[in-house]
Design goal:
With about 100 residues, the chain is an all-alpha fold. It has a domain of about 60 residues. The chain is built from three helices and no strands. The longest helix has 27 residues. It starts with 10 loop residues before the first helix and ends with a helix. The relative contact order is 0.10.
Length: about 100
Amino acid sequence: MQTKRDMTLNEQDSLQDMLDCEKQLLGFYDTAIREGSSKNLRKELLRSYADCADNQFSVFQEMKMRGYYQVQPVQKQQLDTKIDSFKKIEKQLMQK
């Protein structure tokens, strides 16, 4: 039988759940923005998306500060390679 303590989320689990929820909400907002048919609706969704992105980043920072989320530093060469790849794709898309 589970006790109340067994069913209680610890701090790390709670923060991870919040982070996952914010990421999921960002996906929902993204879809709604792309499919929105009204300029005013899209404007409001974009504002809400930005608020949600800020919330997600705040939770991420809390997790990182508490040692729950480890970030690996990226090598400059890896970053430059990704940027070059993105620019090539962007250029191809702009030509179509």
